[in-house]
Amino acid sequence: MLDARTDVVGSLLRPPELLEARERRHNGELAPSDFKRVEDGAVNEALRLQEEAGLDVVTDGEMRRLSFQSQMTEAVEGFGDWDLDAFLWGEWHSDELGEMSVDRPPLAVESPLRRRRFLSAEEFTYARGRTDRVLKVTLPSPSLFANFWDPHRSGAAYTSLEDFLGAVAEILREEVDELVRLGATYIQLDAPHYPLLVDPTYREFYASRGWPAERWLDLGLELDNHVIGRHEGVTFSMHLCRGNQASRWLVEGGYDWLAGRLFSRVRAERLLLEYDDERSGTFEPLRSVPDDKIAVLGLVTTKTGRRESVEALEERILAASAHCPLEQLALSPQCGFATSVLGNALTIEDQAAKLRTIAETAARVWG
Q1: N or C: which terminal CB in the chain sees fewer CB atoms within 10 Å?
Q2: For the chain, how far is it from start to end, CA to CA, in angstroms?
Q3: At CA 10, angle to CA 8 and CA 11, rounded to 5?
Q4: What's the confidence (pLDDT) of residue 87?
């Protein structure tokens, strides 16, 4: 199992030139080969930024993605029409920036899923030769795509939600196998939908659709564990946050309801947990972290440019160690800096400073 004391969730802020190039490509004004060169440059810079910060683990910054989960719908046929709102819809909150409401688009899987290409193999093969750090690849948890199954429009392709999600899980299982074949040693499943269950309103919502919360979680974890499989020498992590788009969040509440039901049952060895403000609750749920897993504390916020201090982070880590041994803890940002191309409300300089502070804190706490 990977024993890194610093980690990153996945995404970094897209540079302005990449956002401009993406828009030009969308409008037919930029050739694919030219866009690829801009993407490659953004990945190179993302790797450099993380290495210079002193991180043990790096990613390609998800520079090639519209959203953290869009590689699935881009690489696989059958999902029907979709756009960025497919991954944004909901009621998003921020005391500083105000509310953001995104209506649910008319999503529906329309035909049996068929993979056109691997989701992340290109991301991994490009980046692996450009860093000497542990390179993490992020993949979405299968049940994140439940919103694409519509009982009226999807029945010809899949007779039930379970059948559809099983197909999604199989594609992701094949993706993991390919990444491992290519030499990946660290793979993450992003599962921000599970912490929605800490909010009773969301538990009631799932129950009203025939999915009591525990049954929904049982299905999701079964699919996650199928995707993870068993791969010697490969570490898996699961990221659990409460929503992160344009510096806003979906729900608040501690991990208390979720911890005992999830931490010991998912095969992931590292649990990346959001703990950047009072919305996250107490460290008490860390008591449910099994002895053979590491809790990566997301103490550094990606939602604002607020600069955390090494001293304050050290104090919080030591407070967490009252519930989970220090040797089972690590440090990371609370989420990605740009869960989608929208990005969060901070600067690239803020981002770099936060990553440096993570490395400096880890050196002080763990040596």
Answers
A1: C
A2: 19
A3: 120
A4: 83
Over residues 15-57, the pLDDT tens digits come to: 999 999 999 999 999 999 999 999 999 999 999 999 999 999 9
Distance CA 335, CA 11 (A): 8
> Residue 145's domain spans which residues?
16-366
Say how far apart CA 113 and CA 126 lie, in whole Å: 26
Is position 189 within any domain?
Answer: yes
Q: Which two tokens stand for residue 172?
A: 């992701």
**104 DSSP 8-state letter:** P
Residue 291 belongs to a domain: yes
Are residues 15 and 348 in contact, defined by beta-carbon separation less than 8 angstroms?
yes
Confidence (pLDDT) at 254: 95
Q: 44-70 in b/e burial notation, b at 16+ Cβ within 10 A?
A: bbbbebbeebebbbbbbbbbbbbbbbb
Give the amino acid at 362.
Answer: A
Q: Dihedral of CA 192/193/197/200: which sign?
A: positive
Q: What is the CATH number of the domain that holds 171?
A: 3.20.20.210
3-class secondary-structure state, position 239: strand
Answer whether residue 226 is part of any domain. Answer: yes
Q: Residues near 55 by Cβ (< 8 Å), separated by ≥ 6?
A: 6, 7, 8, 133, 355, 358, 359
Which stretches in the chain have pLDDT values below 70? Answer: none
Q: What is the dihedral of CA 239, 177, 145, 218, to 10 degrees?
A: -70
